[in-house]
């Protein structure tokens, strides 16, 4: 395999890579967290990084100071900070789509200057935020009415991928801050049941549809939006003029929006330098802004900005996204870990990991490097998880005693944010006790001697022994406010960036998703019309035939 055309050595041929392999083999062949803490109790304080309101404890990792130093050297050699600066400068670092990557400009202050091709994009960002705020206020106050003059009570966001997961996740996360007199629903699946269930109990006269699609060509979204339009018109007597009061669009594609029949005055714009999975702090967040109000939305943007500034300015040894990204590389590339669990101990973060799945897996699920050469190293992990404590009674068994190494992030808060009764508030300590207990058990396990000392019969000892040494990062904040949510999301955005930079992949394209989109369109006529679709493989052709037969029964 030749070196990359840029002249820099391939990742696995770098001396810094070899040094990490040697370190893994010689210094930490069988890392033992009990011993690491015994010999270096100071790591409990030293391996903590603070950013904004987040306290990130990475002491329970299979690392020493030397590991960290070697990982930092890899980051220097692969010029992570150089690429970071190029991103913030607005360079076209998404090379396969020839686009700048500037989600950070979405939260830049009004007086900042961020140029793309010589044009400052910040005034445009704030113009759209102001337009969103004015609209959100009109809906929230009841000034924006539906076609029949009734106040809007229901907001239905129709979108998929980045045009759904972000607003849906953030709406759930910030529920205590939402206007409870409004109902919010999020429709993404082209399965008609999704829209059916979302609107079946709603009054069309009181319902606003937000059609969220960067490209405005995504078949699921356009199909659902078309059906929503029919539902609305059927409910309002068929007057086409109703559409203008009940449909707004969030998109980069004004032509397609107006082709769909939505007035471009009712379109909230964003730009091709915002990736779908990095977009919920753009116009894509309109449903969220209506739910929590413009001020809270801006607080969330402030939170994003805190972490942007930190990522940009903090030194490597105290740079949280850099450290988290490098830890992931340590496990994925030097311990054969295949997945990464994100386990929030907050019911409000129930959709957080699903959101991160797109952020991480669509960004770093790549197998060629930036120059198109196949990679010879592992790239993005499988990201998974659901809120604790539910997961503890489902799949934690495998993390504790299975055969796989699964690094995990445990996320928790010192205070519940909702107005809970005293009795429910008291449950918070129990929730957090679970988080801390899991982190401890995963790290330190339970030795056979400890099990025996409890009087466990010898034949059961192996079954009741926990080997420990399962690494976790614990992220703590006071409470889940809009700012803290912004901080958390930006932390993961930049962590994903760091890993993509080290792996030398383009984290900002998603060609892998395109094939499925094209094929679905090609296969559909075979289902609907029984058409002979050229190029169907024998297995798929048989499945299509079986489907058609079953459907007729
Ligand atoms: O899943 C592929 C994808 O292109 C995502 O990257 C994007 O978030 C999603 O589809 C939706 O795209 P759009 O916002 O253009 O409808």
TrEMBL record:
Annotated pathway: Carbohydrate biosynthesis; gluconeogenesis; Carbohydrate degradation; glycolysis; D-glyceraldehyde 3-phosphate and glycerone phosphate from D-glucose: step 2/4
InterPro entries per UniProt: G6P_Isomerase, G6P_Isomerase_C, Phosphoglucose_isomerase_CS, SIS_dom_sf, SIS_PGI_1, SIS_PGI_2
Catalytic reaction annotation: alpha-D-glucose 6-phosphate = beta-D-fructose 6-phosphate
Gene3D superfamilies given in the database record: 1.10.1390.10, Glucose-6-phosphate isomerase like protein, domain 1
Pfam families: PGI
Active site: 362, 393, 517
Subcellular location: Cytoplasm
Superkingdom of the source species: Bacteria
Family: Belongs to the GPI family.
Protein name per the record: Glucose-6-phosphate isomerase
Species in which this protein is naturally found: Streptomyces levis
Organism phylogeny: Bacteria, Bacillati, Actinomycetota, Actinomycetes, Kitasatosporales
